[in-house]
């Protein structure tokens, strides 16, 4: 939804958002603001999701203050890895097939996040979190980080974020192992089977 912050108590970190049509007024907490490091102000234009808490009250989630972008450190990390992976494959004589594989899986994972976000908004069938984590684990995590930043999907849910980062570090560890002699032998035996 689109709206505007109509009340804000900066000392306490909460306020209220009114929808553009004025029919809905929802509570917003600073932890729901996705613009990292930004403190909202009255009259800021925002987009947000609405969720009902266990007491039946409506709260704003995934609040994006329009015109304000936080620096995408996680996206920078993902793309830095792709550059470093390309360089390390060249330097350590690794299997060049890994780079297009990472790129394909990243793009596919990004679109799976986009599809899941659209499904959440439409109330239709969702992609399971375990599927999104598995795609990240096998190499699509740079796309997952980009989707979290651009689409603001699964970017605030703590259990999901923690498991995603565990999958990322396992994947990086696996990639580094594939540059070792035993890892190269494994790749060659897998490719030799085809």
The portion of residues assigned to helices is 40-55%
End-to-end Cα distance: 50 Å
Largest sheet: 5 strands, antiparallel
Number of helices: 5
Computed CA radius of gyration, to the nearest angstrom: 20 Å
- β-strand amount: 15-25%
Shape type:
elongated
Low-pLDDT parts are: none
Mean pLDDT: 88
**Count of individual beta strands:** 5
Order of helices and strands: EEEEEHHHHH
Supply the number of structural domains. Answer: 2
Structural class: alpha+beta
Strand order within the widest sheet? 3-2-1-4-5
Structure overview:
This is Membrane protein. It comes from Vibrio caribbeanicus. The model has no long low-confidence stretch (mean pLDDT 88). It contains five helices and five strands, in the order E-E-E-E-E-H-H-H-H-H. The chain is of the alpha+beta class. The termini are far apart. It has two domains: 2-65, OB fold (Dihydrolipoamide Acetyltransferase, E2P), CATH 2.40.50.140; 73-193, no CATH class. It has a five-stranded antiparallel sheet with strand order 3-2-1-4-5, with no helix packed on it. A hairpin with a 5-residue loop joins strand 4 and strand 5 (58-65).
């Amino acid at each position: 939804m689109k709206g505007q912050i109509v009340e804000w108590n900066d000392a306490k970190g909460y306020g209220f958002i009114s929808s553009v049509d004025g029919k809905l007024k929802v509570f917003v907490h600073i932890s729901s603001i996705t613009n990292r490091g930004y403190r909202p102000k009255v009259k800021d234009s925002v987009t947000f999701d609405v969720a009902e808490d266990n007491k039946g009250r409506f709260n704003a989630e995934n609040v994006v203050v329009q015109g304000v972008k936080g620096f995408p450190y996680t996206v920078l990390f993902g793309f830095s890895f792709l550059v470093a992976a390309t360089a390390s494959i060249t330097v350590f004589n690794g299997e060049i097939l890994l780079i297009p594989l990472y790129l394909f899986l990243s793009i596919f994972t990004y679109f799976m996040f986009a599809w899941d976000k659209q499904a959440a908004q439409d109330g239709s069938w969702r992609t399971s979190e375990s599927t999104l984590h598995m795609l990240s684990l096998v190499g699509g995590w740079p796309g997952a980080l980009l989707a979290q930043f651009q689409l603001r999907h699964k970017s605030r849910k703590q259990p999901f974020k923690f498991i995603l980062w565990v999958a990322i570090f396992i994947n990086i560890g696996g990639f580094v192992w594939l540059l070792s002699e035993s890892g190269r032998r494994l790749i060659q035996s897998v490719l030799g089977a085809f």
